[in-house]
Amino acid sequence: MPELVDELGIHDDDGALRAEYVRAVADTLQQDDARQLRKLIKELHVADIADLIEFLPSEDRIRFIELQGRTFDFEVLPELDESVRDGLMDALPNQFISSAVRKLDTDDALYLIEDMDEEDQQEILAKVSREDRTALTRGLEYPEYSAGRLMQTSFVAVPSFWSVGQTIDYMRNEEDLPEDFIEIYIVDPAYHTVGFVPVSLVLRHPRPQQISEIMREHDVVFTVTDEQDDVAYKFEQYHLGSAAVVDENQRLVGSITIDDIVDVIQEEASEDILRLGGVGDEEITDTIWSTTQSRFGWLVLNLATAVLASWVISLFDASIEQMVALAILMPIVASMGGNAGTQTMTVAVRAIAQRNLGPVNAVRVVVRESTVGVLNGVAFAIIMGLFAWWWFGSDQLGLVIGAAMIINMFAAALAGILIPLALERFEIDPAVASGVFVTTVTDVVGFFAFLGLAAWWLL
To answer: What pLDDT, on the 0 to 100 scale, is given for residue 206?
Structure first.
């Protein structure tokens, strides 16, 4: 089996794990061959091992961890999708989880236990050191998706009167420091952060020089209650590598690094895409029942809007009976409007998420999108007008569908930009609700414009 893996390779051309490799691991689990399993995964990065666990059937995931025994790398656990993590936390013994908590950074340890029952949390926390227990208990008190949950409580801080030499000696000799850090925070006697020094800058200056002389002012300092999407935005906006986090008394309590924020940015982007599709925070690893539940509500809402559109059509049933061509052509008007509205809405929701669309430029963007809608409407009005004339031999029918196309494309552009802005104004996530409302507007306006013009002009 290892020979097969060596021949095929672990990853495919896109960097994903090969199906043959995953099957080889699954076969090894069925044989309870711990030695073979360690051989198969010894070259994998922790992120790849997390992917491998997610690919395995749920009943094999625990066995995968158990077979590795003491060689299992706890760094794998924070890399797991939330639904897989929750399943493992329910199945794994608390003794194992407490061992993981002791080994991981504070932010990763919090990720593991944040959704567990309070009784299990307390049992796990009782088995870690007093210092870790205090940090984790405090972290659990911070709001979910806040800087307090993201930060690491292990960081390097020195007083401003120290020299470069003292700082270097401290970093070399102090055992209780993070393994990786890129900035040293400068604090006053009350432990308020007054600046920072990049490690590279410390190494380039002579030992006698005072650290305050090379200190830099903070571009941004976060508080423990800052929301994670605000943190991610500022990291991206100001090109931060790491940043200090302070509590309500402005005392330095933690540090956030770029590797934590990359995950947040990816999560936020994925969340927006999923919500635009009406599937919430769904993961590919979710169970059938939870997936069905998460989608059902939005499908019910879509059903209600579809009934509304059908009711508009029913107002013109006599007109449709007299001219079958109307029934043939009216889905085209609604479909083109829906697609145009979705294009505008997608751009608007993403711009709002990136803080590029707001009161400052809203009017200008609305005018821009409306103009684009009219121009596209005119272009497709000409195309569809000629097509309807050729198909049904009626120039008047061509004029009707052309006029309806302009009206609906304009309405789609307005809805696609104004609905997300309005939802944002009322503090409702535009990514969640925009799609349903925009589709409703384009369907209703499209059917009403086309059938109404036809009833007035042709019949």
So the answer is: 96
Q: Residue 414: name the closest of 391, 431, 434 by CA.
A: 434
Contact call for residues 235 and 245 (beta carbons, < 8 A): no
Mean pLDDT by 10 residues, the chain (459 residues): 59 84 91 91 92 91 93 94 90 94 92 92 92 91 93 94 96 88 95 95 95 94 95 92 95 93 82 66 71 73 79 85 86 91 87 85 93 94 94 92 95 93 87 83 93 87
Q: Is the entire prediction scored with pTM above 0.85? A: no
Reading the block at residue 182, the tokens are 């890129």
State the Cα–Cα distance between residues 448 and 214, nearest whole angstrom.
69
pLDDT score at 281: 66
Are residues 325 and 392 in contact, defined by beta-carbon separation less than 8 angstroms?
A: yes
Instruction: List, for residues 97-156, the tens digit of each pLDDT value.
Output: 999 999 999 999 999 999 999 999 999 999 999 988 999 999 999 999 999 999 999 999
* Residue 38, phi then psi, degrees to nearest 5: -65, -35
Domains of the chain: 2-140 (1.25.60.10), 157-258 (3.10.580.10), 288-457 (1.10.357.20)
Strand partners, 17: 11
d(CA 158, CA 136): 23
Write down the pLDDT at residue 284.
66
Token pair recorded at residue 49:
């091992």
Number of Cβ within 10 Å of residue 56's Cβ equals 18
